[in-house]
Design goal:
Blueprint lengths: L6 E10 L3 H10 L5 E4 L16 E2 L8 H11 L6 H21 L17 E2 L9 E2 L5 H15 L3 E4 L2 E8 L5 E8 L4 E11 L20 H8 L4 E2 L4 E8 L11 H5 L3 E3 L7 H4 L8 H15 L4 E4 L5 H7 L1 H9 L9 E10 L2 E3 L11 E3 L4 E2 L11 H18 L21 H18 L6 H22 L6 H22 L26 E2 L7
Parallel strand pairs: 1-2, 1-9, 2-6, 9-16, 15-17
Antiparallel strand pairs: 3-5, 4-5, 7-8, 8-9, 10-15, 10-18, 11-14, 12-13, 13-14
């Protein structure tokens, strides 16, 4: 049988991923270069849309850059790159002004004493009100606005019929585009002068997440396959408050609910955050998530309570209309009863190591948004710095790409294409097994024995999946799983190598980092570091 020859096309700038980061980049690059945006329909349900709280930026006259920088450094628990933090914070106001110019409907502040035209809320870790928002559905408002502008731009071609399953490199180890699968299951090769990953994080490695369609680190592993360095994979953030409803889809209860006065109680009525941290419910997410986890262990309950009833009906409906309506639809009136909540995988602080312009260690390959690790978040992301990062680094990456002449697309190295089909239910069984391993052993609290077990179990699972991958026909679900299981193994490796408890990596078998005497260091891994 003759080998299958994929269809091949040439492109200038190829962007993979259509959340806030990808859309922002597309709009900025399209002024100087032609853009192809691979944006499957599932991107509309990715992490960007579910970002309820808002965007952190220094906008109030009572706030300043140094304060935002200091709060971010504290939340990052000693592992932030201060240069990246200051760069991000100082670029924030301009990014917000750009969104306003596009028509994003941020919530206005109508009070006579308002010092800024738009309402600013406060969230965990922030010492000031600096979160601009569109009611409690900021991600949706920003995404929809950006999407409408992208769809109308003549220099942006949207490919919503493709899903990227891997990148292509040439003999000089440069990125030369991506291999994609179309709606008919046919392989297509998109050669590109420059390729940008905006594919999201890796919360999908876990059983419970805050997004209905979480990414599983596919972009991180695509980059790693070309030799890109991955950094800080062990720092997976669990949002403290996801709606507890085992029979329904995931739904995030925004950090802003606590920012506006929401109180956490155990199921036996104890307001536990008062004794855990002087900031109580406004402590950084890693502290709140561990406290909730400990209370669930103490009481044997699958959730705790988040109560806002004391704020009053009018305030709740005004500040949290989306959350109120969603909970009401699921049989819970939050104006009258507390919300059952549980921590869930939410954000990856690690990813593809990049510079301030999104450059990876692979020539012509860039990464922006959650797939990247810029050093901004350190060991723990502070609330609402994520959409800020998407905007700032998309804009800086666009500036770098605008200075580059369109590159000639040299031929990538040839790959092999299998023909065997793997049954969908088998792929789903493997994915469930991977998520169970990660949720049992590599979640909010890790221990040495659990990490060792996870390493062993994931290695065995990986070998089973690899045997199927080597002869399989192009398949998006199987490709995603193959990326995910290898990233899970690298995440466990990073966690085992960090012999301290810091930020989101909490291991009772390791001392707190301030007791080790060791200098803070990021973790750095390559795909080649994985044992066979």
């Amino acid at each position: 049988m003759a080998p299958i020859r994929p269809a091949r096309s040439e492109h200038d700038v190829l962007i993979i991923g259509g959340g806030v980061a990808g859309l922002t980049l597309a709009l900025h690059v399209a002024g100087t270069r032609r853009v192809t945006l691979v944006r499957p329909a599932s991107d509309d349900q990715g992490a960007s849309r579910w970002a309820q709280g808002g965007i952190a930026a220094v906008l109030s006259p009572q706030d300043d850059f140094d304060a935002h920088v200091a709060d971010t450094l504290v939340a990052g628990d000693g592992l932030c790159d201060e240069r990246a933090v200051r760069f991000t914070v100082e670029q924030g106001p301009a990014a917000i002004e750009w969104l306003l110019s596009l028509g994003v409907p941020f919530t206005r502040d109508e009070s006579p004493s308002a010092s800024y035209p738009y309402h600013l809320t406060r969230e965990g870790g922030h010492g000031a009100r600096r979160i601009i928002h569109a009611e409690d559905a900021t991600g949706r408002a920003v995404l929809d606005t950006l999407k409408s502008h992208v769809e109308a731009h003549p220099a942006i071609a949207i490919r919503d019929d493709l899903v990227a399953i891997g990148l292509m490199g040439d003999a000089q180890q440069r990125c030369r585009g991506a291999r994609c699968v179309d709606e008919r299951g046919q392989l297509q090769e998109l050669l590109a002068g420059d390729t940008v990953l905006a594919t999201g994080g890796a919360s999908g490695l876990y059983r419970h997440t805050t997004s209905p369609h979480p990414a599983s680190g596919e972009g991180m592993m695509m980059a790693a396959e070309l030799g890109a360095e991955l950094m800080n994979l062990e720092f997976q953030q669990f949002h403290p408050t996801c709606l507890y409803d085992p029979g329904g889809p995931p739904f995030l209860i925004s950090e802003a609910v606590r920012g506006e006065g929401g109180r956490l109680y155990s199921t036996d009525g104890h307001r536990f955050m008062l004794e855990r941290d002087e900031r109580a419910e406004l402590a950084p997410r890693d502290i709140v998530a561990r406290a909730i986890d400990a209370e669930m262990q103490r009481t044997g309950s699958p959730h705790v309570w988040l109560d806002v009833t004391h704020l009053g009906d009018a305030a709740i409906r005004s500040h949290f209309p989306t959350i109120h309506a969603h909970c009401l639809h699921r049989g819970l009136d939050i104006t009258r009863a507390p919300i059952p909540v549980v921590p869930a995988a939410h954000y990856s602080c690690g990813g593809v190591a990049t510079d301030l312009d999104g450059s990876s260690s692979v020539p012509h390959l860039y990464a922006i948004g959650e797939v990247a690790c810029t050093g901004l978040h350190g060991a723990n992301r502070m609330a609402s710095n994520s959409l800020l990062e998407c905007l700032v680094y998309a804009r800086s990456c666009a500036g770098k790409l605008a200075l580059r002449a369109p590159a000639a697309t040299s031929s990538p190295t040839a790959g092999t294409v299998g023909t065997k089909r793997v049954e969908a239910h088998r792929v789903e069984q493997w994915r469930t097994a991977m998520r169970d391993i990660m949720s049992r052993h590599v979640a909010i609290v890790r221990r040495d024995a659990g990490l060792e077990a996870a390493s062993r179990e994931l290695s065995e699972l990986s070998r089973e999946i690899q045997a199927a991958v080597e002869s399989a026909a192009p398949d998006t679900a199987l490709a995603s799983l193959w990326h995910a299981v290898r990233l899970a193994r690298l995440t466990v490796m990073a966690a085992r190598q960090r012999r301290e408890s810091r930020g989101l990596h909490f291991n009772p078998d390791c001392p707190p980092h301030d007791q080790t005497g060791l200098a803070p260091r990021p973790s750095r891994l390559h795909l080649a570091d994985l044992p066979d």
